[in-house]
Design goal:
The chain has two domains: 15-67 and 205-230, no CATH class; 76-187, Ribonuclease H-like superfamily/Ribonuclease H (Nucleotidyltransferase, domain 5, 2-Layer Sandwich), CATH 3.30.420.10. Helix 5 links the parallel strand 4 and strand 5. By secondary structure, it is an alpha/beta fold. It is built from nine helices and five strands; from the N terminus they run αααβββαβαβαααα. The longest helix has 19 residues, at 212-230. Helix 3 (48-65) packs across helix 8 (186-203). It has a five-stranded mixed beta sheet with strand order 3-2-1-4-5, sandwiched between helices. The protein has helices at 15-27, 32-41, 48-65, 114-128, 141-150, 164-168, 171-179, 186-203, 212-230, and strands spanning 76-86, 89-97, 103-109, 134-137, 155-158. It is globular, with a radius of gyration of 19 Å.
């Protein structure tokens, strides 16, 4: 984890307020105007456009400092793609999650073919630094073709019923899509999900069953680290 401090120079609001606004926007299905209203209730007068700028400037800086889950050769990659309409045109969001529901990577592409599937796998291999134990996909043949070229020895299970973990991982973004009334550009969607999924990874416990106490402790630790990396410690 990168522990270098984030600079808030030339910003009139303190780190605590900026980090809290960014957390509200990316962590919960809230529009920028709703975040503006929630801050106003606390006596903080700031426009939704300023909150948007905070999200763009500080969101990626925050997630770079959050602790990532360590890759393992025992990991199982669940791959899936979902269609998203941007300015009236179809785009595909390709996503990979592991056996615990942790989002490994996402990429927005205009294609749904072998070239697009291969691009996702290349990014995953570079980011994770090793191959998984197994990949699980739906029946799209592009996955099999890409896998044979890039990691032929890795086991591949292709069955729609086995891939519920990846399909369910799209639901949080679908909620945000409705709140935001869609995305304006493929680049804007890519920037948003890179922060949105990283923050969700950090705060949401794995898909494994946990007791209420374990979940509570996880959230306390996640918030403590968030405050440390954002410099929002009171």
């Amino acid at each position: 984890m990168n522990t270098s401090a984030i600079s808030y120079k030339n910003h009139r609001f303190p780190a605590q307020i900026i980090a809290h606004a960014v957390w509200l926007y990316f962590r919960f299905p809230l529009s920028l105007r709703l975040v503006e209203e929630m801050l106003l209730e606390r006596g903080i007068i700031v426009s939704y456009e300023t909150i948007r700028r905070w999200g763009r400037k500080f969101g990626s800086a925050y997630v770079k400092r959050l602790r990532r889950k360590k890759p393992s050769r025992k990991d199982i990659w669940h791959l899936d793609e979902v269609v998203i309409s941007i300015a009236g045109r179809k785009h595909w969001l390709w996503r990979a999650v592991d056996q615990d529901g942790y989002v490994l990577d996402e990429i927005v592409q205009a294609r749904r073919d072998t070239k697009a599937a291969k691009r996702l796998l290349v990014r995953l291999l570079k980011k994770q630094g090793l191959t998984p134990k197994r990949i699980v996909t739906d029946k799209l043949r592009s996955y099999g073709a890409a896998k044979r070229d890039l990691m032929p020895t890795v086991e591949h299970r292709s069955h729609k019923g086995l891939n519920n973990r990846a399909e369910n991982s799209h639901l949080p973004l679908r909620k945000r899509e409705r709140v935001m009334q869609g995305f304006r550009s493929a680049g804007g969607l890519q920037r948003f999900i890179s922060v949105f999924s990283a923050i969700r990874n950090h705060f949401v416990p794995s898909n494994r069953k946990h007791s209420a106490l374990t979940t509570h402790i996880h959230r306390i630790r996640a918030m403590a680290q968030w405050k440390a990396v954002t410099g929002a410690v009171a």
